[in-house]
Amino acid sequence: MPKKTLSAMAWLCIFIVAFVGHPVWPQKPPKRKTPAELTVPACCEEAKELKAQIANLSSLLSELSQKQERDWVSVVMQVMELESSSKRMESRLTAAESKFSEMNNQIDIMQLQAAQTVTQTSAGRCCLSWRVLSRALSLLQVFCDMETSGGGWTIIQRRKSGLVSFYRDWKQYKQGFGSIRGDFWLGNEHIHRLSRRPTRLRVEMEDWEGTKRHAEYSRFALGNELNSYRLFLGNYSGSVGNDALSYHNNTAFSTKDKDNDNCLDKCAQLRKGGYWYNCCTDSNLNGVYYLLGEHNKHLDGITWYGWHGSSYSLKRVEMKIRPEDFRP
Fold first, then answer.
1. What residues form DSSP beta bridges with 133?
2. From which residue to which does any coiled coil extend (predicted)?
C-alpha cells in the first residue's frame, strides 16, 4: 500500500511539474500580416490621387486642343480674307492699267491724226514728224508717199540701192536703221506704235526688167516686243498675182541673234535678214540685195515666191502703211 501510494504521488508530481512548465495547451500561432496587406489602404489613396491628376491633365489637353482648333480656324479665315482682299486689289489694278493703256492709245491716235497736216513737195513726197511716243513726247521723222493710191502712206521699209545691210540684230531692227531717203527699216517699235489704230499695208515691188507689182493688206498690225513684234494681216488684194506674205501671218519676228521662227532651222541666219520667218519663207523682203547678174542664183535674196520664185532677188521694194480710215 505505501508503495502504491508513493507511486501515485510520483506520477502526480510529474503531472504537476509538466502542467506548470506548460500552463496552457498549445495553440495555433496567430497569422501575421504581410507588408503588402499593411500598405493596401495607402496604395488606394495614391491611385485615387493619380486618377484625379490624369483626369485634370486630360481636361487640360482637351481645352488646349479646342483652343488650337479655334486658333487654326481664325488663321484660315484671316488668310482667306487676305486672299480675297488681294484679288480685289489685283482686279482694281488691272482695271486701272487697262484704263491707262486705253487713254494712252487715244492720246496717240489723236496725236497721229493731228500730224496728218503735211506739206507736199514737188515730187509728191514729204518728210514730217509724227508724235508716236506720247509719254516721252518724242518725235519720229518719217518719209511719206502722198501720190500712190490717194497718198497718206508712211514708208516703213525701202530697198533700192543695196548700200545698207539688212542682216542686223534684234536691237537694230527694234530701233530702226538706214536713211529714210535711201534704204532703211523704220524700226519694229515705231511700226508697232504706228499700227495700233486700224492700218493698211502696201508692198510695192519692181524686178530687174522694170515690171512693177503691188500687194495690199487690210488690218495690218505689229505686236509689241513682249509678243516678239508678231505680224497680223487681214485680206489680200493687189496685182502681184500670188500672195506670198499671208504665209507669214501671225508669225513672230526673228533676227540672227533671236530665233522665233517655226522651224528647226534658224531661218534668219539661212535667209540673211530680219523677218517674220515661218518655216522659212514665201517672201523675204529683208534679204540680201543682189545686183543684176547675181539676182537669180540665191535663196537668201529679196524674194516674193508668188511672182519670180525663190531664187530671184528683186530690184526694188517699198513697204508703206496708212490709216484704214484715211481719205485723200
1. 138
2. 47-113
